[in-house]
Amino acid sequence: MDLFYFAVKGLYRFAPFSFIFIMLIGSGLNPFKHSPQTAKDHVNRAEEHLIRNNFQLALADYKQALKLDPNLAEAYARRGDLYLSRSRYLDRFNRNDEATRKIAQQLHLDLSQSAVLKKAGIADYRQAQVLYQQQSKVNCSRRLSRQITLFQQGKTAFMKSYNCY
């Protein structure tokens, strides 16, 4: 009986730390997870940031991945996805409708960046397309070519080529 009482009482002392640990794990911050070592690790972490709508952190991870491996076509294609999706998001508010303009002002959106993001996304798609061709991934190169054509025509159809990554 004394041993059980001691064990329960001993666990109570660590309860606040256990709560903090569970909160960290639940929030997606794993204290045991090491920082990314390879370019592919950075791309994977960027995808985790995108799931949580942390676009700036995702962009920083894509840039770090490209610093580590400038020939990683996947990083260019996914960063292009990020730029073009943000461009489409801003285009939704870039109408002549006064109500949407007020919403954009309340959200502190810079609607003039839509064209810049679109150009950057298409440039990343082109770079990924060239790298995929060099790696003999013809289907991926064709998909990116189709996406570039759709965006240049102003069409909003958007397909991510996840089977290429």
Structure characterization notes:
The chain has eight helices and no strands. Helix 3 packs antiparallel against helix 4 and helix 7 packs antiparallel against helix 8. It is mainly α. The N terminus is likely disordered. The protein is flat and about 50 Å long. Helix content is 72%, strand content 0%. The protein has three domains: 32 residues, no CATH class; 37 residues, no CATH class; 92 residues, no CATH class.
Overview features:
mainly alpha, 72% helix, single chain, 0% strand, 165 residues, disordered N terminus
Estimate nothing, just give the exact number of structural domains: 3
Main beta sheet strand tally, sense and closure: none
How many helices in DSSP terms?
Answer: 8
Shape: flat
**Helix-strand string:** HHHHHHHH
Indicate the structural class: mainly alpha
Average pLDDT over all residues: 76
Radius of gyration, whole Å: 22 Å
Distance between the termini: 58 Å
Helix content: over 70%
Please report the total strand number as a whole number: 0
| Residue fraction in strands | under 5%
Low-confidence stretches: 1-9, 17-24
